[in-house]
Amino acid sequence: MAELDRDKEIREEIRRAKKGTASHKNGVLLRVLPFVLVLLAVLGGTVYTARKNIDGMDSLRRMFTYNKVEQNEEGRAELFRFDNDRTARYAPVGSRLLSVSETRLSLMREDGEEVYSRTVNLTTPAIALGGKTAAVYDVGGTELYIVGERGLVREMSAESGNGILCASLNASDYLALTTLQNGCRASVTVYDASGDPVFTFNSSEHYISDARVLEDNRHLAAVTLGEADGMFASVLSFYAFDSEKAISTTTLGGTMVLSLENLGSELAVFQDDRLTFFASDGSLAGSCRYDYPYLRAFSAGGKDFSVLQLSRYHSGSAVRLVSVDGEGQTLGALDERREILDVSAAGRYIAVLYADSLTVYTPEFTEYATLSDTEYARRVFMRADGTALVLGSSRAWLFIPKGTR
């Protein structure tokens, strides 16, 4: 009888222990459940926002980044003031504004104060933009300066040979410098972000019209001018930094190569009548012929797309804007009869500067935001966060869209 009572007590202890454990688990679950529900709601809202509108995170980022910037109701914030010089060239370098004329190089901060300036002698000044720096050089001359947000990074005039043909920077600030050299028609030297040379090739028979380091920082693309079958032709060659010989060559006959631009991991080749995309090994990745015969302007600054400004006629304001992905497929198009002064793409946005206003579009040309009064602005630089830097004759301002549409 005592043994049975003892067994009963043991079973009762086990039952109470299990009940206590279950109660503890239920208590923990009740405490954790609200947190889990909130987390799921936030994640769900984020996913919904991302799917609902591509700039959801950009709007939030702008709200925190520019909340202390003085701006009007439309989101216009004045940043820079400068002398009216229509011969000068301007470009953003980080949060600064770079100004280059034939006689002066200047870098301004947002309050209009100069952070760097120097006297230069540039017959044909040019600016090439990279990720964090810009190359200021004299086409045909020998002066070359690499400028960053704080001022001069390095002077490279000693590397300009007998004259600079062209210069370009990629997003990692790798410089492709094409120069005239003794003993060859032209030479291209690649310098890394620290200014150290990492690759050189000489062209003994043909001049080089353009060269660019791809975004992998291991390949170079260059265009040489020549002829094929008795006709003018451009030859596009790809080089790997660990080999002296070209790994790929493609003859681009008939029309001029206007520019080489990086679009993600691919190279975008803009010609008079078509846009062609190549992988880093030189293989064809995509192409498209223009639906209108005249290319007025273009921008390859989008995250994974380029923008073309096409026209049916040599002159006139009737144009078609087309956005194209890296395979040559059309993402969106816009027929426009208003005068367009400038087009710029960055991130997932397209800025179109009209004679009296500025409109920011998505790659599908859905209107995203509009600034109604641009006061005779002449240039626009779209930025990846959805803001746009607008340049007038003597001042520049930032357009900060308030939110999504």
Looking at this protein, list some descriptive labels.
15% helix, globular, 405 residues, four-stranded antiparallel beta sheet, alpha+beta
Structure, described:
Helices cover 15% and strands 47% of the residues. It is α+β, with helices and mostly antiparallel strands and 405 residues long. The chain has a 4-stranded antiparallel β-sheet, with no helix packed on it. A 4-stranded antiparallel β-sheet has the order 2-3-4-5, with no helix packed on it.
Beta-strand content bin: over 45%
Q: State Rg.
A: 29 Å
Biggest sheet, open or closed, and with what strands and sense?
4 strands, antiparallel
Are there runs of 5+ residues with pLDDT below 50, and where?
Answer: 21-26, 35-52
Fold topology:
Blueprint (H helix, E strand, L loop, with lengths): L1 H51 L3 H10 L10 E6 L7 E5 L2 E5 L3 E5 L5 E6 L5 E5 L4 E5 L5 E5 L2 E5 L8 E6 L5 E5 L6 E6 L5 E7 L3 E7 L5 E10 L2 E10 L5 E8 L3 E7 L2 E6 L2 E5 L5 E6 L4 E6 L5 E7 L7 E7 L4 E7 L3 E7 L2 E6 L3 E4 L5 E5 L7 E4 L5 E4 L3 E5 L6
Antiparallel strand pairs: 1-32, 2-3, 3-4, 4-5, 6-7, 7-8, 8-9, 10-11, 11-12, 12-13, 14-15, 15-16, 16-17, 18-19, 19-20, 20-21, 22-23, 23-24, 24-25, 26-27, 27-28, 28-29, 30-31, 31-32
